Amino acid sequence: MMPDSAATPSAATVSAADTDLALNTVLKKPAPAPDRALLQPQAKPDCEFRGPFSDPMTTEEIRMKLDYEHQCYRQAESIVRARMQLLQEFITGRSAVPPAPDCLFTGPLSSPITAEETRTKLEYESQCYRQAELTARARLKRLQDSVVQKTGGAPRKAG
After folding, report:
1. Is residue 156, in this structure, part of any structural domain at all?
2. Could you tell me if residue 99 is inside a domain?
3. Euclidean distance between CA atoms 133 and 47, whole angstroms
4. What is the domain range of residue 118?
């Protein structure tokens, strides 16, 4: 069972105003193309846990699966955010660190935490990071497309 609306995931990513500012900068100011690597589409993360499971899954197997997915999506979001930062720095010439998402579960937890509470917490945080990664990847793609359009689609080779 998911907690009430107070614990609904809210993925904090780069604000639309920050992204629009960067895009407007790209569209108004001619700039050389960045390295090709920064303009390559970010691959969707493969965060599916493929470990062996019993049938039905044990509580520990569920915890392991959820913990793996939680860490995977958290790292994937961080990678996308870092790429977006590098591209924004290239465009504007200044560091614009996108904020990390606030995916900390704030629902009630007992002490010691129960297996069900652990599952709920991990599910919540995994979903939050999954959504934050998806949102950041879409913003990165939008920024990349704008840079390619502005530079005539000719990024320079890394090196």
Report:
1. no
2. yes
3. 12
4. 5-150
